[in-house]
Structures are given as structure tokens and as C-alpha cells.
Design a protein that fits this description.
The protein has ten helices and 21 strands. With 377 residues, the chain is an alpha+beta fold.
């Protein structure tokens, strides 16, 4: 009989970790969580909750040594400590070298180029600066190599004067893609080399905050584009030799071709709907992958939409939910609140998944949710 790890350590105690714990309960796993916030969403659900910095070498090392296996729900972690744990025989998935590559957008883009994976044209920079040789790139985005997520560390560049407002630090200048659609494929791989992908979803981003506002599954794309996206996602996780769950965000260009934008080596915003809409959720799949269990079927039961519940602009303080009952009365609506006591403008406070037979009907329900459910203080 094989002895599998039963005590899982999660670095990060946010909403992704919270939903990961909910799946772990079904597999009778013991979960420990490390997070700097004493009131993190995972705090009340974890078997063991440790308050500590995710970037502190000693804190991560001591935490990991008490677990059978270590995983993440956020990339901003101390990978030197994870490498040390790995050298001591502790399983760490995704592997530290994969996390290090994804922590830095410069390394990500270089990886795509080396592997021949289609992506937007880019130039690496030590700091944002104008040069005539970059004129053909505009309009573009300056992206910090490290520490940027959910739209942070990204600045639009239309002309030379825009470089002055760009975030300071090493990064890359990336040509803007005039895309038709933004899509995502979540793919999983276990130690046995089994690879399974979820159906492609279509993303809609908040126009100012550059984070996912809502999504529809399945994506409204051609069969050829769908196949290309799924093949690209599987190719990326195999080329990385990664074990775990990988979200691959992509653009569908004006000519119909598909290219990789960014990746995340963990459960992802673009997979929340799988809890209700698919045979296996992304959270259960992540656990199956890191525990080297057979990967689950990703077949969709139904079409679905997911709406992020963001803190309303102009409100900071104890969270109050307006319109919750009206949304709960919608057919097929499933509400997930993350347990965050304080709301801030555009903070992710929860999400709503709506299931239904027809995408057109789901569009109507998404608009209803956006209009009626507000998070105030």
C-alpha cells in the first residue's frame, strides 16, 4: 500500500486557499496554512493556521518542515526556503524552479520565446525608458518583472511621455495586442505525467483595474481556436515539467491565432465556475495532481458564467452586501463569499457562479448581478 501525504501545507490563506480547503475536506486531508494576515479567509477553516510572512525564509522553512507536502495559492513566496525543503526530501508542488520562473514576467516571456510558444512581441528593460528603436512597439504596456498581479505593476504606454508614469523597476515593454477575445485554459499534470485540461473559458476584464470581472464557459470561439488553446496549455505545462495546476491566459488575435499572455501555477480566478459546472473542480484537480492521484474528468455539466464580487469604489470598511437576496433568487445562482470582513475598492470579496442551458440567458443574469449586488461599507 502506498502511503500518500495526508498533511498538506498551503502557502497563502486567501480565497483560493479557502476553496482548496473545502475540497481537501472531502479527501480527509489535514491542512495547515501560512499567511501574514491573522484574519485571512483560511483562518477559520484550516486545521492549523500560522501567522507569518510568505517571503521570510525561516518562517516558510519551519512551516514546511511540519507538513508532508507543501503547495501554494499565491506566487509571492520564498523559493529559497522551498528549495531547501525540497533538498531535505519534502515534496513541493508546483516545484520551486517553476514558481521562480513565473514570479518574474521577464523569465516567463523568455521561456515562451525559447520554447517557440507564441506570445506578444516584447523588449526587456532594466527600467522604463523611451528609445526611438521602440517606437514600432507602441501602443504598448510596461510590466514590472516582479511583484505585479491583478493589474498592479502594469502601465499603458502610448507615447514617450507615458514612460514617466510607469512603475519603476526592471520589467518589459510589451506590444499591445488588438485581440478579439481573452481566453483561459486550466490544465493539470501529475507526477505520472498524466495531463488533463478544462474546457476553454472566455474572460472579460475590468476596464480600469485590469482584473477579471466575469467569464463565460464555454468560450465563444471556433473549434480550431479551441483546439489550439488547449494544445498550447498542455504544451506549456509539459515544457515546464510542472506538477500541479496551471492557468494559461491567452489572446485570440485579430487574425484568429492564439497566443499566450501569462500563466499562474495554482487554482485561478478563471476556474471558480468548475465547482458547480464540471465533474471535477479545479481545486480537487489541484489536490489530485500534487498527490499523484488519477486526474478527474473535466467534462462540463452545463454552461456557466462567473461574476467576481468586487468592493464598490468609494467604500472602505466593514463589508455590507446589498442585493444579496435578489441574486440568490436567480435560478442557477451559487454565491461564494470569501469571509473578508473589510471591503476596499475593487477588492475581491466573493464570486457568483450562474449555471444554465444557454449563454444568452447567462449574459442577462450576469448583467442582473452586476447591477444589483453591491459591496458597500
Amino acid at each position: 500500500m502506498n502511503t500518500r501525504p495526508s498533511h498538506i501545507g498551503i502557502l497563502g490563506g486567501g480565497q483560493l486557499g479557502r476553496m482548496l480547503i473545502q475540497s481537501a475536506i472531502d479527501l480527509n486531508l489535514e491542512i495547515s496554512v501560512l499567511d501574514p494576515d491573522a484574519s485571512a479567509p483560511c483562518q477559520a477553516l484550516a486545521h492549523n493556521f500560522v501567522q507569518g510572512s510568505l517571503t521570510d525564509y525561516q518562517a516558510v522553512l519551519e512551516f514546511g518542515r511540519k507538513c508532508d507536502l507543501v503547495t501554494i495559492e499565491i506566487e509571492n513566496v520564498n523559493t529559497k526556503a522551498l528549495r531547501k525543503l525540497e533538498s531535505e526530501g519534502k515534496p513541493v508542488f508546483p516545484q520551486p524552479q517553476v514558481i521562480e520562473l513565473i514570479q518574474d514576467k521577464r523569465l516567463q516571456k523568455s521561456f515562451y520565446q525559447e520554447q517557440g510558444i507564441p506570445t506578444a512581441e516584447y523588449v526587456l528593460m532594466e527600467h522604463p525608458q523611451w528609445s526611438e528603436q521602440h517606437a514600432h512597439m507602441l501602443p504598448a504596456f510596461y510590466k514590472l518583472g516582479r511583484a505585479g498581479y491583478d493589474g498592479r505593476g502594469v502601465h499603458r504606454i502610448e507615447g514617450p511621455e507615458d514612460f514617466q508614469g510607469a512603475p519603476q523597476g526592471a520589467g518589459l515593454l510589451e506590444r499591445q495586442i488588438n485581440f478579439q477575445k481573452e481566453i483561459s485554459v486550466i490544465v493539470a499534470r501529475n507526477k505520472n505525467g498524466e495531463v488533463v485540461h478544462f474546457p476553454t473559458v472566455e474572460l472579460s476584464f475590468h476596464p480600469q483595474q485590469n482584473l477579471v470581472e466575469y467569464l463565460f464557459a464555454p468560450a465563444s470561439i471556433t473549434t480550431q481556436q479551441d483546439q489550439q488553446a488547449q494544445e498550447l496549455a498542455e504544451r506549456v505545462i509539459v515544457d515546464l515539467d510542472m506538477i500541479g495546476l496551471l492557468a494559461v491566459e491567452m489572446f485570440v488575435d485579430q487574425d484568429g491565432s492564439v497566443m499566450v499572455n501569462e500563466i499562474a501555477p495554482r487554482p485561478h480566478n478563471s476556474g471558480h465556475h468548475t465547482i458547480e459546472a464540471n465533474e471535477t473542480s479545479q481545486y480537487e484537480q489541484h489536490l489530485r495532481a500534487i498527490l499523484n492521484l488519477p486526474l478527474g474528468s473535466t467534462r462540463s455539466y452545463t454552461a456557466a458564467a462567473m461574476v467576481n464580487l468586487l468592493g464598490a469604489a468609494g467604500y472602505t470598511g466593514p463589508a455590507k452586501y446589498q442585493g444579496l437576496e435578489e441574486v440568490m433568487a436567480l435560478p442557477g445562482a451559487h454565491i461564494h463569499l470569501y469571509g473578508k470582513k473589510v471591503t476596499k475598492p475593487f477588492r475581491k470579496m466573493g464570486h457568483v457562479t450562474v449555471t444554465g442551458a444557454h449563454i444568452d440567458q447567462l449574459h442577462e443574469r450576469v448583467n442582473f448581478i452586476k447591477s444589483n449586488l453591491k459591496i458597500l461599507s
